[in-house]
Amino acid sequence: MIKVYAISTGKIKKLPYSKKKTMRSALDKSPFKGQMWLSKLGFIEDEQAYEGHGGPHKAVCCFSKSNYTMYKDELSELPDYAMFGENLTVEHLDESNVYFGNQYQLGEAIIEVSEIREPCWKIQAKYDIPNLIKRMSQSGKTGFYFRVIKEGYVNDNDNLELIKKADNTTLLSVQDLNELYYNDRKNLKQINYALQNPYLSPSRLEQLHKMKARVETE
């Protein structure tokens, strides 16, 4: 069992964190009470401000509370939950041990690791840490997304249980893909290996094909 510290949702609203441009986002999330339906597109009362967030391959965002401490020197007080707008704040799930295709039970629902988290300017603006995006990306501790394999009700006190491991022949961790995507984009061997993974989203595979084409033409 993997302890879930909080399950949070949020609505799109105008946020005060950016002085340069209007910020409309559901970044600020709060734990719900009772139970909530988890559909193929995510928790029924959760929203995303634009197309790049959400969708069937980014239905549920997960982040480890243990990674909050990476920013303890910049912040006088660390948030208790949803620091980076994640739906699931777990006690600890290290990206190096989380594999695309791993399936977990969450309440009645079954969810599957499907995508890396790409940090955006909004979280950097919220905490006013100038190099936050770079630090998060280069570290590989970005969190990750689940797709929903089986819809169902989730209670506020449900935890995660690993029920199916990814195929060993194409094993690819969140940390591995983050390393490739953010730090090692010319590694053709690793690009080709990642392209064999059957659990990555169509958009991620498209990006990997583009990376491969650029490397091969250099």
From TrEMBL:
Domain of life: Bacteria
SUPFAM superfamilies: PK beta-barrel domain-like
Signal peptide feature range: none
Gene3D superfamilies registered for this protein in UniProt: PK beta-barrel domain-like
Pfam families (alphabetical): MOSC, YiiM_3-alpha
Molecular functions (GO terms): catalytic activity; molybdenum ion binding; pyridoxal phosphate binding
Domain MOSC intervals: 30-163
PANTHER family: MOSC DOMAIN-CONTAINING PROTEIN, PROTEIN YIIM
The protein, known as: MOSC domain-containing protein
Organism, scientific name: Staphylococcus saccharolyticus
